[in-house]
Amino acid sequence: MSLDTALLLCDLQNDFLHPDGAYGRAGMGTPDLAALAPRLAPLVARVRAAGGWIVSTHFTLVPGKGGIPFISEHLLKNRPFLKRGDFTPGGWGHALVDALAPSDMAVDKIAFSAFYMSRLDWVLARAGVKHLLVAGIVTQGGVASTVRDAHVRDYHVTVLQDGCAAFDRATHDTAIAALRPVATISRVADFLA
Questions:
Q1: Hey, is 180 helix, strand or coil?
Q2: Sign of dihedral through CA atoms 28, 36, 75, 88?
Q3: CA proximity to 188, closest of 152, 129, 135
Q4: pLDDT in tens, the chain (193 residues)
Q5: Could you say which of 3.40.50.300, 3.40.50.720, 3.40.50.850, 3.10.580.10 is the CATH number of the domain covering 5-59+95-192?
Q6: Which secondary-structure segment (H or E) carries 186?
Q7: Is 109:126 a contact under the CB 8 Å cutoff?
Q8: By C-alpha distance, which of 113, 123, 186, 184 is closest to 150?
Q9: Which residues are CB-neighbours of 17 under 8 A, at least 6 positions away?
Q10: Could you state, in order of their start, the residue ranges of all structural domains in the chain?
């Protein structure tokens, strides 16, 4: 693993993955989501030991007056259970899950792509990162949007297909297939071998 490589962990946060997080409380957990942190933990340790970067992105609901979060209309329609305190910057639910923490750099994001209105491109450039190994959720949303944005910014991108998940397997598989023109598709075990 070279020093110009970063493992980009997209939205692997307590509010998405932990049973006590926002999605867990709403019954939105799946076995595929639950398997991500244990599957990725050995890779995180390997990248860390090799001197590579661990970069985490954190979906964020920015609190407004009285702590009421700004939530996009489309998101609120699909996830009406989201409320005050969910995905709050600095809160437990906003944090990277313990099994993968800590990251070397954490970047808050407010939309699907981690590059949109964030400092991600700036910190990756400062760190000298040219190659991204991408893992996270959800495959067709935050992962796909971030991968496509990385591609147009001339990063070499490898998507870890078994390091990503969606809320159903068919959606995940379709999203992975659609990313083949812009990224190398690989598996976690390939990088551990």
A1: coil
A2: positive
A3: 135
A4: 678 999 999 999 999 999 999 999 999 989 999 999 999 999 999 999 999 999 999 999 999 999 999 998 988 898 999 999 999 999 999 999 999 999 999 999 999 999 999 999 999 999 999 999 999 999 999 999 999 999 999 999 999 999 999 999 999 999 999 999 999 999 999 988 8
A5: 3.40.50.850
A6: strand 184-186
A7: no
A8: 113
A9: 23, 24, 29, 33, 34, 36, 37, 97, 137
A10: 5-59+95-192
Number of H helices, E strands in the chain: 8, 6
Report residue 44 as tokens.
């995180």
Q: Where are the alpha helices (DSSP H) in 50-119?
A: 73-78
Residues 6+ apart with CB under 8 A from 82: 22, 61, 69, 71, 75, 76
